Fold:
Amino acid sequence: MNRDLSTSVPHRVGRAEHGRRRSRRRCRTRGDRGPGAPTRPQRPDAELRALLRQVDERRIEATVRRLAAFGTRHTLSAQDDPVRGIGAARDWLLAQFQQVAAASGGRLSVEPQSYVQPPADRIPVPTKITNVVATLRGATDPGRVYVVSGHYDSRRTDVMDFTGDAPGADDDASGVAVALELARVLSSRQPAATIVFAAVAGEEQGLYGSRFMAQQFKAAGTDVQAMFTDDIVGSSRADDGTRDPFTIRLFAEGVPTAETPAEASLRRSIGGENDSPPRQLARFVKSVAENDATGMTVRVIYRRDRYLRGGDHIGFLEQGYPAARFTEPNEDFAHQHQDVRVENGVQYGDLPEFCDFPFIARVARVNGAALWSLATAPGTPKGAKIRTAALTNDSELLWDATPGATSYEVVWRETTAPDWTHAIDVGPALTAKIDLSKDNVFFGVRAAGPGGHRGPAAFPAPVS
Structure:
């Protein structure tokens, strides 16, 4: 029988030592009295504030209106018509990103990423699918990559109707406008890590373009540490007319899409359902992007996506990359996936007149705060482990050195808490012993760099 040393106090222990042991027991069971300091949001510094002030809602509006003006951007629409169809939209976007690159002083590069999709679900004939990809190469840690995308294809009520008008203003010219505007703003500086801005195609037909991009990253061994898709971020108005202009939803899965049976068994054993990489990413986004510089609240949704629905982050989740989806707080389905028409005096269709352009600009600032904070801080620590060789009432953690890190923090929370509540500064050490039982709390490890910039936490795996 195991003896519970945390509650056993030998008679020979003096009253002072007895009190200290009682205090230690409280630390093991009461999260508000444990070691470390309470966590605090990571406030935007002067550089980030200056960048976010450059986000221009007029440019965002111009992008949305121009994309809607191509008539349809259906994946199966014309590839070679200069004024209508997905080919015209593709060429315009490529030119826009190239203009941004030309003004970046060589920091940003742009390329079309194309392949031919064989016949498949919603793809009746071989179809060329092209992503427009702009890369802001990192200065000191270019192999670490962060991605933001929107999809530039659109659809009608009948997903196979590629001839009728499908303006796709909210879904998803709004997300493309976010990616394009952030490419312009962030490429005026050079972060430590690499940021990729993408406009992808084939989403409405089955996430084809983004899946291809994720597969290309995986085949190249790219260390994608975060991916955001901005899909339907154009309106703050719900179908009942109410508005919520200062909230953005962030969907982040718990059980990993790419989890193996062995990993699932381990997750169940240690209770890691709320500590997947996307959940750590979502916690980080709230910490750095929910402030007066963005004017927004980030509402994290504990789902991969909306109920029985999906988006372009799923292709990255399938490859084991941390990914999450930004979507407006409430959706008005009269202006999504609807043919443009008037019925009983009600206007249907995804038209620019139903977009809220100041709202899209604030969403862009949330994305910009997250991406810039990720790319200027050290990355997520790798090799995070917690020792389990012996039964103990303290917890020993270890991790690998992270490029650019000057120190590390062990963060922890009660098992019922949604976010980290305490942080313990352990300096440059790569191991730490914490006077808390791993049975009672969850731990994470995060790296800090110059200026106190912190990256996302890594959830430690057990090791003997």
In short: Residues 1-31 have pLDDT under 50 and may be disordered. The first helix runs from residue 15 to 29. The CA atoms of residues 77 and 162 lie 5 Å apart.
